[in-house]
Amino acid sequence: MRVHYLHYSRATMLKSTFTPIFCMLVPNPKSSKLSTLPITNTFKNCPPPVRQNASLKDPVSITVAPHLAYPTSAYVHLPFCRKRCHYCDFPIVALGSASTQIEDDPRVSNYVQFLCREIDAMKVECDAKKPLETVFFGGGTPSLVPARLVSKVLEALSLKFGVCEDAEISMEMDPGTFDARKMKEMMGLGVNRVSLGVQAFQEKLLRACGRAHGVEEVYESIGIVKSCGVENWSIDLISSLPHQTNDMWEESLRLAIEAQPTHVSVYDLQIEQGTKFGTLYTPGELPLPSETQSADFYKMASRVLCDADYNHYEISSYCKSGYECKHNFTYWKNKPYYGFGLGSASFVGGLRFSRPKKVNDYMGFVQSLENGLVNCSGNDHINVKDTAMDVVMLSLRTAKGIDLKCFQESFGSSIVSSLLDIYKPYFESGHVVCLDEKRRPIRIEDVTTSSFDENIRERKVAYIRLNDPEGFLLSNELISLAFEVIDSYNFGSPHQEAA
């Protein structure tokens, strides 16, 4: 079990980096004051013109093309785990601690059958569909699933949409759930990116989390991934665990770097209701770290990983040059995507649609989909206010930041001016940074508020982004401020928005 991006309500997404992919992004949230830690979860870039919005003082074309384009990415949820980790509230099916070989488990084969049926029943305009460029198998622990069943899913995706020859096909894999033979079988199916759920390099912490693996299995799995020639692979780590110290966190970062993955994901623990941790602990109280300690963990990760030549390209993600996760960029750029399986969400035709989180309910959903009783492909109606919020939230998650010219063309110069006004104290404090077209920092003294519109048009100020790490640590507060600005604007009636 590991962490996924996306599909959360905006409020939930703002409270944590430890965010699963299968929760739905709920429309029309009301902004709220949120604590500045843990760090935010966000994702998105800007779109191109579709209509005039007469309700704005400065009529502009709303850019929504990425929403309306057909997806080229698919997330597939394989929910099976040996056991539920103490922090986990994801939709999973626990098979038992000893489950490493599940070749004949009917729970797995039946689920995969329904998964393939869902893929086949997905409504797609044949003349507009595009082959998939990324596929992400998340969970759960996808590496528990037999290769022959993974093959069935990939075959179903290929028959329905097509899969590019050079597609990025990622799989989450947990230590102790695969050997070299299984790794090579997965590679033979096309899996070319592995996300390894290490989480910690200390036996004590792994036991405290309820993880099914130990440190010995961590090193074994790293050895298998490297010996099998997987070039593109990631290590996942969690900070702010119970009893975790600065020394432990620094050791985990150091040992991760020594393993030489091309990517490292770092998540801050979020205590969720209904989990074992949720009944045992209160955030900020011992044995959990304080907010100050959590911030120190985040700063340490940024410093240590960047010093080791990993690019901090997104709040929780670091990579060697050229090894950004292409699939996750789909989310951060707010592009459409398919989601299949228990609890997963899709974003197609402007609609974010979440599947049921219980197995029986999910199977009933698939049957309804086959009978034409469910529409999860959208109707191309875009809520402009939601889109503007998504742009801000997703863009500020990344090192690139908000493309101001694109945002202004999409939503109007008036709202851009309001955003810049509200961020002025943070420009001055250095938490929010102005960048030129070549992504070079610009001193705030060189661009006055009154000249921002002109500077944006001339691309003197091309982007604003959050400073690393201090700005990222304030991302909850900064994005909430932007939500308040956006929520106060009248973007037109629902009928106008759909026009």
From TrEMBL:
Domain Radical SAM core, first and last residues per copy: 66-309
PANTHER family: COPROPORPHYRINIGEN III OXIDASE, RADICAL S-ADENOSYL METHIONINE DOMAIN-CONTAINING PROTEIN 1, MITOCHONDRIAL
GO biological process: porphyrin-containing compound biosynthetic process
Function: May be a heme chaperone, appears to bind heme. Homologous bacterial proteins do not have oxygen-independent coproporphyrinogen-III oxidase activity. Binds 1 [4Fe-4S] cluster. The cluster is coordinated with 3 cysteines and an exchangeable S-adenosyl-L-methionine.
GO cellular component, one term: cytoplasm
GO MF terms, alphabetically ordered: 4 iron, 4 sulfur cluster binding; coproporphyrinogen oxidase activity
Family statement: Belongs to the anaerobic coproporphyrinogen-III oxidase family. HemW subfamily.
InterPro entries in the record: Coproporphyrinogen-III_oxidase (IPR034505), Elp3/MiaA/NifB-like_rSAM (IPR006638), HemW-like (IPR004559), rSAM (IPR007197), rSAM_horseshoe (IPR023404), rSAM_sf (IPR058240)
Name listed for the protein in its UniProt record: Radical S-adenosyl methionine domain-containing protein 1, mitochondrial
Domain of life where this protein originates: Eukaryota
Pfam families referenced in this protein's UniProt entry, alphabetically: Radical_SAM
